[in-house]
Amino acid sequence: MNSEVTLKCMLGLTTPSEIMESPNTKSAHKFAKPQSAIQSTASKGAVRSISPQHANKSPPLVSQKGAKENTKPQDFKLHTQERAAKRALFNYTVATKLYLLERQKKQIEKLQKMLRKEMIPRAQLMPFFDRPFFPQRSNRPLTVPREPSFHMVGGKCSSSISCI
């Protein structure tokens, strides 16, 4: 803050009397010159005043190369249309994936509900007594009984029964 005040005072943007009147600059009283000293230096031409309009401006930049005379502006192409098309395609794919996932989830829930319903133990149905049951004769031939062969081959038993 002090350096700002002294800089403004040196550049001639403010006078020391304005600085002393402002309540925010208590330490500015130390650096302010008396009014008579300012008037004496101003009359001698030692203090150079800079107008506030030119204080912040820098000298204009002059390019050393000459401007090209026959230049034409190039056509430019914005990528907004391409990006919009890509975004629409992306949004469509995301929407289809979400739809398929939701549909698959509903199918799984439906299958689970059906399986839970089937898992409930139920009593067997009563047989129908109004119609008599007549078993049908089988078409398969009867098995012919044979005797087992327990003879020894080579001194060992051929069957799993131990020989005594």
UniProtKB/TrEMBL annotation:
Record-linked PANTHER family: TARGETING PROTEIN FOR XKLP2, TPX2 (TARGETING PROTEIN FOR XKLP2) PROTEIN FAMILY
User: Which GO biological process entries does UniProt record here?
Assistant: mitotic spindle assembly; regulation of mitotic spindle organization
Official protein name in the record = TPX2 C-terminal domain-containing protein
Residue ranges of the TPX2 C-terminal domain?
76-143
Biased composition of type Polar residues is found at 16-26
Classify the source by domain of life. Eukaryota
InterPro entries named in the record: TPX2_C, TPX2_fam
The UniProt keywords, alphabetically, are: Cytoplasm, Cytoskeleton, Microtubule
Location of the protein in the cell: Cytoplasm, Cytoskeleton
Q: Does the keyword Aminoacyl-tRNA synthetase apply?
A: no
Give the record's family classification.
Answer: Belongs to the TPX2 family.
Composition bias, Basic and acidic residues: 66-77
- An example molecular function term from Gene Ontology annotations: microtubule binding
Which cellular component appears as one GO term in the record? nuclear microtubule
Locate the region Disordered.
16-77
